[in-house]
Known about the structure:
By secondary structure, this protein is an all-alpha fold.
Amino acid sequence: MKLFRKIRHRLILDNKKTQYLKYALGEIVLVVIGILIAIQINNWNQSIKDKDSLHEYLTKIKTHTAEYIEQLAGLTKGRKQVADICKEARNSILNKTEKENLFLFKVSGAAFADFYFKPNSGGYESLKNSGFYGKINNTKLDSLLAKYHGLVDIIAENERNYNQYAVYQENYLDSQFDRSLMLASAFMPLDSLATKATPLSEYDEAFIEFTAEPAYRNVISLAAWQFDTMIEQYSELTELGHLIIEEINTTTGD
Length: 254
């Protein structure tokens, strides 16, 4: 800058207006070039920061998705076991062989258990609310994430409807029956039951009467077919989860 000032001062003293104008124009051009270079460097640095931030969001989503897949595997296994039992119980009802399959009806009570898929969508919601969501807008990953969380909402609604129905029917049965004998039969050892004043036959009769109720059989029948639909949705969600992880790996270069 001292050199530039000296040059300007000399040109002014020598009254070289044309040369001074040329020099001033050149100095302006240099300043503009310097500003443009500084802006480009700043943009480049900001781009790197934005990329790193996006990678952090996507890595969190990938971690959550892997956890979902593991959770879905456990839910699928549990629902399939209950569905298979309920299908056998339903066939027994149709064949009028309930008394011969009393144990089957005892374990079919698992249809009243609550199963919920509980995903952690914090990473996805954080990305959507950030300024980095536009980086993946209208991409394959964006489409996959939208499909995934749309299906999550559908599954949540189906599970909520089923579980609420099962709870409603169970509450009704509780208001109509004393389940003390059934609970004792289910959780107390047989040798301990044998020492009680109540004969073992009464425990079985209590189960037969309870499981013959329409409220009980309605839940069994619903589980027998609706669980298959839920399992299919779990499978579809798992497949989408794997595709999301693959696309995130492609995007982040992992």
